[in-house]
Design brief:
This protein has 504 residues and is of the alpha/beta class. It is 41% helix and 17% strand.
Length: 504
Amino acid sequence: MEQKRNSYSLRQLARAISDGNASQRKHFGQGTDVYRVYDRFLRSFDLTVDLYADHALVTMYGPCADADEDDIRSCVGSSLRIPSSNVVIKSRIRKSAVTSNDITDIAAQIAGEPLASDDEASGEESDKEEGSAGVALQVHESGIAFGVDLLKRLDTGIFLENQRSRLLVKELAKGRNVLNLFCYTGGYTLFAYAGGASACTSVDTSSFALDMCKANMESNGFASDDFKFVRMDVMEFVKGYDGAPFDLIIIDCPSFSNRHGGRERSFSAQKDHVELITSCAKIMSKRGIIIFRTPLSTFELEKGRLRDLKIMTYTSEMIPKGFTRNSIASKTFVLKAMSEEDKRKMDERRARRDDDICASHRIGGREERIGVRDERRSAYDERAVCRDGRRGQSADRRSGRVGSKAERGVRERSRRFDDGMSDSDRRRDDRPFGRSKPAGRFKSDDDASGRRESFGRRRGFSDGKERNSRRPHSDREKSFGKAGFVRGGKSNGRKASGKFKSEG
């Protein structure tokens, strides 16, 4: 039974991978051979599968109970029609929370020692190589070649989740002076060159990233003296730049990094993004554009401190095909310098907001605040009176009662006293017709007849008899015994025939 269950789960995984590969190949065409084909769709397989030319990278985020690594490697290879030896499996399963009874893991967690896979699962960029042997490949995205390595480092050399943002840069780069901050291996630099950028400056603190960027430029045959590579802290470069203004600034910053200027100069996307964007706006042209992107899932742009810039959000639009919305935590914002028309509209909105604040008694003298308060209170009282009056009139029309509430109460009390009825009976009789309940089952026929008379009186019949209402079970049984089975228990002069005819 266990073997059948495993084979069924593997067949589901194989079908999902093959369908994703066919869909992606049709979507991207011949110019792209690197994309995601499976993104944690099945609960049994918490993993992702990325295709890199004739190789596949499987990243596991959770244990797979239905299969081991050999089964997954064979399944992925057969689904993508590549040898199983070309399938690389990486594990990013967090072990910081003890999931077993291993005394070694428990002791390590109590002592505060890092576990073996914590560094792998952190998601931080690292220049440290994972192993001596690597799997070096050359892949293509939209006809542009990238050098990647599937085993040597935690990252491969290209971020697949940035596919659409790279295409956006290609569309905007024509004739512009581009600044690429946190350039990494130069993905945005390559697409800026392909889009016709007049110049580009790539800045990063990692020498390995800059060497990879230069190698990618050479492999594509891109060569220009106006494309420069600077190894420097991003914040220091932006604050100390005094050259020609940039028309397009790309900020693809990490969520946190302690490698930019040393540990005392660590970078945090949430804390330092306002300072970075403000500094970039000072070296940006009048029609300049800033594309800000960060993988921090909890990131919130502080728009109140960036009032001089027009802010647009394009997070959902930048999710590439093959990725689910939950798998991508990156946030994307586009910021532009405000035009004169935008500034005028912004000033008008701020003026209206200030007027609203004044009306809400937050500013102004004491006499002015008291006068505004009294006016608002009187207006509210008038609206409340009108509203209550309309409600009362509507209720009177529905119930057929007229007069004020006090007058109705006096008349009700006097009528109850004259009739000698109790309050419960009067409340029952005063209920609207639509809320009256038909007669049901009763303990005795006397109770049933009394209830029927009360119901008939509420219906307005003078004789107190019930009309067209449900009759007690005893009456129905009597009529059934006399005339046979007839719908509703009434014979209406007809006689039942056949097997339903009574023998009496």
